[in-house]
Amino acid sequence: MQRNLARGGQIRNLCAFWILGLTNNFAYVVMLTAAHDILKEEDGGGGSVPIINVTTARPVSTTTDSPPNSTGQPDTQYLSCNPISTGAILLADILPTLLIKLTAPFYILKVPYKLRVLLVICFALASFLIVALAHDVWFSILGVVCASCSGGLGEITFLSLTALYDSKVVSAWSSGTGAAGVFGALGYAGLTAAGLSARNTVLSLVVIPVLMGVSYFLVLTKPDRSRTLLVGSADSNTSGNSNSDPLNPNVSEDSNSDTTMLLREEKEKVKVKLTLQQKLRLVPPLMKYMIPLTTVYFAEYFINQGLHELLYFNNISWLNKAAQYRWYQVDYQIGVFISRSTVTCLPIPTKWLWILPVLQVANMSLLIAEVFLRFIPSFWIMVVIVLWEGLLGGSAYVNTFYKIRQEVEPQYSEFSLGVATVGDTVGIALAGAAAIPSHNHICTQRIRMRY
């Protein structure tokens, strides 16, 4: 009976962490998928869309995806761009996350998990409402900032929380974040393709933060903090009765008195408390995980937000430039979901994590060359490349945190998992910063379209 109850609790926790991963990353994904549309919003929407004319490098007004030629008709002979790179949306979507992740590990454990989760939910709700109701691009970006605060605080909260449960929940969390990419990008692209406006599409997604609250407060079981925090500690190696408290052999597990629980709780707080100096000493050993992750994320997000909007094909009558951008995002997220869901089947040894950034940088180099030379003949070849990009990115993410959960001593894993989230965020922030000047440089070049 107890075994069945334990198994039922484990299944509930796996489901809960999968849903938490899904809902935590959903707003972030939707904002990046909608980046091209957000940047085309203008007072009230539906007006003319400012485009940079690449032949003159000056703004012109047109309702098409391409700058006009001398006859006033869209000129598809040359590359056209938004006046602002989608990297601007990426920066708004990642800089608040970076600030949170750089500072939170040193104070966040003092904040109760319930309060943290409520803040995550509130920021997510605000992001959807602001972007849906805003009539100015910069106010929309404020909504993107709220999504960033929600995602960053959520990631460091829920990844730290995995340290209090079975290690399998890391895989469930990662799979959920991958699913967020697929459902977020596919849902947005699908609803807009079906005729729903961008604003109404975003507004319909306010149900996502509600689902997060249901998952955390109703589905997830309470963590057995006494067992988790003491595993692997020096004091936990005491021999004797396995039902006794390892910190106090005189206190029996069979005792249900309030005094016993209070004594245990007080001693655990002392046991897991880390000084600032101890925390700083834990950071350097994490570099072997964080540096490859940072490199992978820099390359893939430079592709996503610096190049995807420029890698369009004019010879596809059924898919315009904006739609191609959205479906690239869907394709990428499918790759991420697949790789984040298979870590228990195909784990990568720690020493091989460096292969992933090498391959991702090769992808970035190939697609930079494609922007200028236009040598890839088919949209479908591009779809395969973008899928491969997503597979590499998702694999880097899930294997990094899975290895930390396995290799770092349990009493330090809660802090270490929180710190390691900085790795991907730094890579994304650097990619956003690099994407904007790169976009501006590319858009001032006279790049001829070959298809």
How are the secondary structure elements laid out?
Layout: H1 2-33, H2 35-38, E1 49-53, E2 58-62, H3 87-103, H4 113-133, H5 137-161, H6 168-193, H7 198-203, H8 207-219, H9 225-230, E3 244-245, E4 248-252, H10 258-272, H11 276-282, H12 287-307, H13 321-340, H14 355-373, H15 379-407, H16 410-443
Antiparallel strand pairs: 1-2, 3-4
Can you put this structure into words, describing what you see?
The chain is mainly alpha-helical and 451 residues long. It has 16 helices and 4 strands. It has helices at 2-33, 35-38, 87-103, 113-133, 137-161, 168-193, 198-203, 207-219, 225-230, 258-272, 276-282, 287-307, 321-340, 355-373, 379-407, 410-443, and strands at residues 49-53, 58-62, 244-245, 248-252. The longest helix has 34 residues, at 410-443. The termini are far apart. 47% of the residues are buried.
Q: Could you give a quick summary of the protein structure above?
A:
With 451 residues, the protein is mostly helical. It has helices at 2-33, 35-38, 87-103, 113-133, 137-161, 168-193, 198-203, 207-219, 225-230, 258-272, 276-282, 287-307, 321-340, 355-373, 379-407, 410-443, and strands spanning 49-53, 58-62, 244-245, 248-252.
